[in-house]
Each structure stands twice: as structure tokens, then as C-alpha cells.
Amino acid sequence: MSEAWQNLKGAAIAATLRMTRLFGGLPPEDLDSVAAITTVVPLEKGQYLFRQGDPPRGFYVVQRGAVCVHRVTPAGKEQIICVFRPGETFAEAALVSPGGYPADARAVEPSQVLRVDKDGFLALLARRPELGLRMLASMSLHLRALVGQIEDLALKDVETRLANWLLKRCPPDRDEPVTIQLDVSKRVLAAEIGTVSETLSRTLGRFREQDLALAQGRTITIPSPARLRNLLRSRLGEPVEADSARPTPSTQGRKTC
After folding, report:
1. Homologous superfamily (CATH) for 3-155
2. Is 90 exceeded by the pLDDT of residue 133?
3. How far apart are CA 225 and CA 94, in angstroms?
4. What are φ and ψ of residue 55, in 5° steps?
5. Pairing mode, if any, of strands 48-50 and 104-107?
6. Domain boundaries, the chain
7. pTM for this one?
8. CA-based angle 228:233:239, to the nearest 5?
9. Which backbone phi and psi does 119 adopt, to 5 degrees?
10. Architecture of domain 158-244
11. Alpha-carbon gap, residue 144 to 137, rounded angstroms
């Protein structure tokens, strides 16, 4: 492989690393040092990156596609921990864990990830201690996400969890229609919010009847985020917005008895 190709490949890896919270803002020389210990790993849809208990070879950055990290319960049910998308890092805890990877990781669509070598990165940490603080911050974000997921699964029903998931993808405090393009299948989305495909479809059907969310294929349109926020607030026992209680398009102009 030519030196020019190697340089181009290294530049592409460094560009992806720069997109992440973990490595964004690092000096170019530090990014080059990380890129030098990074391997590109292509994945087909459904291919496993690692299995629970596998010896850790490093941690990962999603370059394209999506990777689902999950565990299988004793009853054989798959519980999704998180779906990681481009620019996100995962499995950092494996660098300091005495055991293997704590979960399975599988591509949910054709994907490509970067594997940052464990031994190489630990050696780099010895020379660049500030990277350790960045690593702690990244792991803290994962922990917060897990705590939020536990709260969602423990305290809310499926309608509330779905409304919460959709609103996280809407601009805050705005009420223009929003179109969301799903980058995973509805089966993966269902598992991500702690339910099954059939229940998700029924819930989306109820949202359509109430003109809260209109699903078509992998596209979900939110006609009025304010009304969806009101649903979420009412489910959580919080005050609703009075000005968003206007008639929906399906009821405007309809005569009442």
C-alpha cells in the first residue's frame, strides 16, 4: 500500500476522531498519535463486533452505520443498552475492566467502526494524562444515558417512552412540524424503548389517530411537538401548555353535538 494512500487513510481516521466528544479539540499531533493505533473495521448488517466476555481489544468509534450494544437476559430476551451512531464512542470501560466486554455489540445496518487499540491507547495515556480526563467524561455521559434509560423503563409506559424518544429529536420550545428519519429498524427502536414491534406499531397507530405522530416507513412526522410535549407532561403529572391545546387538523371544522 502506497505512502500516499496510508496518509489519506490516516487523515480520514483523524477526521472521524475529531468528530467525537472524546477526541474533539485535541491538537493535531495527538490526533495523529491516536489514528496511528486505530484500525478500520467494516461490518455487515447483523455481524457481531464482539460478544459478552470476549477479551477487550480496544474501544470503538462509529464511522458510519449503527451498532447496537445489548445483553441477553436469562429468559433469552435481548435488552438493548444503547444504539451508537456516527461520531459516538463505546466500550471505553473495557480499557480498565479486568474482565471481557460486558455486553454484545452488533451492526444493525452495514456499518464501519474504528477500533482504538487497547495497549496502544494505554501507552498513550501514560504520555498524555489529559486524555484520561476526557475518557472519564465520556464514560460519565454513558452512565447518565444508562440512568436515564433505567428511569424510562421503570417509571413510564410505552406511550410515554415513545413520546420522550420522539421529543428528544425535536428542537426544544418550537412548534413547527418535525420530520424524523429513523436510522434503525422499528424492531430496534422498539427494543431501545423497552417494548416489542407489535406494541410499538399499536402505539404509533394511536399517535396517528390523535394526530401526534404520523409514521410511514422509516419516516415519522410530528405535526405539533407542543401537543406531544403536552402528552408527555400529562403522563408525568406536570402542567401542560394552554396554547398548544388548539384543535388538531383532524378536528378543525368538525361539528360537535
Report:
1. Jelly Rolls (2.60.120.10)
2. no
3. 39
4. -60, 130
5. antiparallel
6. 3-155, 158-244
7. 0.70
8. 125
9. -65, -40
10. Orthogonal Bundle (1.10)
11. 11
pLDDT of residue 245: 44
Asked if 22 and 116 count as a contact pair (C-beta separation under 8 A), the reply is no
Residue 82 is placed in which grid cell?
Answer: 444503547
Q: What is the pLDDT of residues 150-168, one digit of tens each?
A: 665 555 688 988 998 899 8
Is pLDDT at 242 greater than 80 in this prediction? no
Amino acid letter, residue 222? I
- Whole-number Å distance between alpha carbons of 89 and 63: 10
Question: CA 128 to CA 121: how far, in whole Å?
Answer: 10
Strands (E), 6-157: 38-43, 48-50, 58-64, 67-72, 78-84, 89-90, 104-107, 111-117
Distances (CA, A) of 109 to 38, 59, 183, 246: 22, 20, 9, 40
Q: Which three cell numbers stand for residue 91?
A: 466500550
C-alpha cell at 58: 480496544
Confidence at residue 255, expressed as pLDDT on a 0 to 100 scale: 32
The dihedral over CA atoms of 171, 174, 176, 178, expressed in degrees to the nearest 10, equals 20
pLDDT tens digits, one per residue of 75-102: 777 778 888 889 888 998 877 777 889 8
